[in-house]
Amino acid sequence: MEFDDVDLVVEGDGIAFAKALAQELGGRVREHRTFMTALIIYHDENGEEQRLDVATARLEYYKYPAALPTVELSSIKMDLFRRDFTINAMALRLNKGQFGCLVDFFGGQSDIQRKTIRIIHALSFVEDPTRIIRAVRFEQRYGFHISTQGEKLIKNALSLNLVEKLSGARILHELNLIFREDEPETCLRRLNELGVLAAIHPSLVLNADKNELLDSLREVIDWYRLLYFKETPELSTLYLMALCSAVPAIETADILHRLGLTPTMREEILSLRESVRMTLVELINWHRDTQKKGQTEQSVSRLCALLAPLPLESTLYLMARSDNEEISSSVSQYIYKWRQIKVDINGDDLHRLGLEPGPQFGSVMRMVLAAKLDGKAETREAQLKLAEELIRKGFPGNGTAGAAPKKPR
What we know:
With 409 residues, this protein is α/β, with parallel strands linked by helices. It has helices spanning 14-25, 76-81, 108-113, 124-127, 130-142, 148-159, 168-179, 184-194, 196-200, 208-225, 235-243, 249-258, 263-290, 299-307, 312-321, 325-336, 347-352, 359-373, 380-393, and strands at residues 7-10, 28-32, 37-43, 49-56, 58-61, 70-73, 91-92, 102-103, 116-117, 145-146.
């Protein structure tokens, strides 16, 4: 049996145990004495790096609601008691004589069978309100349900304004875990239903338009994953833009500030959102023009010129946001086909044609690429011929007229 994520808990000195185990495995240890934990890093029989977390059985208590925990040495029972939910408060014994025996003081196995997310003690959400977001994530991932008592305790924590006391960084960390789920929108709707999104910021509340956008965004992301491109989008950026859809810029900046984003990160998302809005207007004009007779010849290159400045996140978001199926289809073709197309000539070719290195190289390359996209210069020979013609004419209409190429060698 293989495990992707193994945590060991030791009654006694976990760090000392980690050092001994690391020596046995031929690895090294990274200590965290404040929390009495250690990370063992070693290489397995295949030479691949592996990591193993070792913790000292400990008790955590909170000096005030939503604070970070204070840690003390304890037993395995008290260590499990400090966990969030019963389904996360089970362990397997590894010591001789009891190897493989399940340790389940709080009925986690029964709750799994009942598909129930149940907290271990009544102050769980008070001590750490991020557990509310975590409960929803597990509930939606596994098709479980939060217990009736758990929902009551969530409402109690919200009535005490405990979510508001959480740092933005802690909230964003939990949201980012949700954004990586297979169906983030179901988690976000449940958080909205429980009143958690409103507690984080009133403008995060979902409406019909946001719900529709979240569905569309997930479909676009799933579609993109099936392309198996190396470049992966930043999911946090995508979903934050969706959650802030139609929210005024000032309020959006306030939301991002509440979530602990730096001024640079806030400005980046606001800028991306504005660029998507402006590009969508341009795409509507492009679509209208392509419907006119005689305007379809340059439609592909014009579309690519509009979308090329946008990062992947903005392009995917634009595709999800557009309610015009033809525009969305064209954007999808740009992502999986036209965005990948490159010219078949290079700078050395331009130099041999008599053009000195400089800004003109980029101008020629862009014009040759446009011709290739529009089916006017599909082969290398045709592109060389076009480049030679452009250099000879001095790139008319592109702000480089009058450039003086050197004589061909």
